[in-house]
Design brief:
With 268 residues, the protein is α+β, with helices and mostly antiparallel strands. The chain has two domains: 2-73, Phosphorylase Kinase, domain 1, CATH 3.30.200; 78-266, Aminoglycoside 3'-phosphotransferase, Chain: A, domain 2 (Alpha-Beta Complex), CATH 3.90.1200. 44% of the residues lie in helices and 17% in strands. It has helices at residues 43-49, 87-97, 100-108, 116-129, 137-148, 150-153, 192-202, 208-215, 221-244, 248-266; strands at 13-16, 24-29, 32-38, 56-61, 67-72, 76-78, 159-161, 170-173, 178-180, 187-189. The chain has a five-stranded antiparallel sheet, covered by helices on one side. A hairpin with a 4-residue loop joins strand 8 and strand 9. This is Phosphotransferase. Residues 241-268 form a coiled coil. It comes from Ornithinibacillus bavariensis. Residues 43-217 form the Aminoglycoside phosphotransferase domain.
């Protein structure tokens, strides 16, 4: 937190903003409020210009090379789970996935497109490193499902993906603006990695077709296989994540979710 004193004077009141990295803070001084973060991606400037995140106020580079960004702090709240079904969520995700500016900026920053094959190889190697590949029936079935249906995921249009879409990361301001925050997992990949999370976690199956129509997609069996492919891949990645941090309860929860996803794939 020493770095904050290098960009703000002592009159600012600083509070942690949460998050995994512990590098995000809220700064208040009278009526002024800022969201501060160290070493945010240069991608933030393009997100701000496109209206996807709250406005970027300034960027400052420290003597050690670290970069501190300050965004306008907007009063509001995270979306409620039921609100993820709203049309404006589908509209925002569509706008992100079809933004040529975001796509171009990520490429300039050196972000390489990530295919399903890339996902599969990365996840399998991580499981092998953690000696998890044969840990349980659920994990073995998950890997088998990824391998079996890999062809369905090939030759898909790759776009900018947020990578961690959930209701906690959607900010609805008091002035009724909707922003998607926390872009640390951004990637260029199959957009189904984003909206598959939304469908599986928030939208009743009987409403999938209507939500996808709003986004601009027709629902079919191939789509559902592809969706579950990425959900299974995501679960396997999280299993390694929790294992590496010795988070046993979360590991067991993720294992149960993986079992359900494997069953859904069997029913197709």
């Amino acid at each position: 937190m020493d770095w904050i004193g290098k960009v703000l004077d002592k009159e600012w009141n600083i509070m942690p903003a949460g998050g995994l990295t512990g590098e995000a803070f809220v700064a208040r001084k009278g009526s002024k409020q800022l969201f501060l973060k160290r070493n945010s991606s240069p991608f933030l400037a393009v997100l701000s210009a496109g209206g996807f995140v709250p406005k970027l106020v300034w960027t400052k580079r420290l003597d050690n090379g670290d970069v501190v960004t300050a965004q306008k702090w907007l009063p509001g709240r995270e979306l409620r789970p039921a609100e993820m079904q709203h049309n404006r969520v589908a509209d925002l995700i569509h706008k992100i996935h079809h933004s040529a500016e975001l796509f171009s900026m990520l490429l300039r920053l050196g972000k390489k497109p990530k295919t399903a094959e890339d996902h599969f190889q990365t996840i399998r190697q991580r499981l092998l490193t953690n000696q998890l590949e044969g840990f349980s029936i659920e994990i073995r079935e998950g890997i088998d499902n990824l391998y079996k249906h890999l062809d369905v995921t090939r030759q898909q249009r790759l776009t900018v993906c947020h990578g961690d879409i959930n209701h906690h990361n959607l900010l609805l301001t008091d002035t009724d603006e909707l922003f998607l925050i926390d872009w640390d997992q951004t990637m260029i990949a199959d957009p189904i990695a984003d909206y598959g999370m939304i469908l599986n976690s928030y939208i009743p199956k009987e409403n999938w077709n209507n939500w996808l129509k709003r986004y601009g997609i027709t629902l079919n069996r191939q789509f559902i296989i592809r969706m579950y492919w990425y959900l299974i891949a995501d679960s396997l990645a999280f299993l390694s994540f929790h294992f590496e941090r010795d988070e046993k309860d979360k590991f067991e929860e993720r294992l149960e979710k993986l079992q359900d996803l494997n069953m859904q794939m069997k029913l197709l």
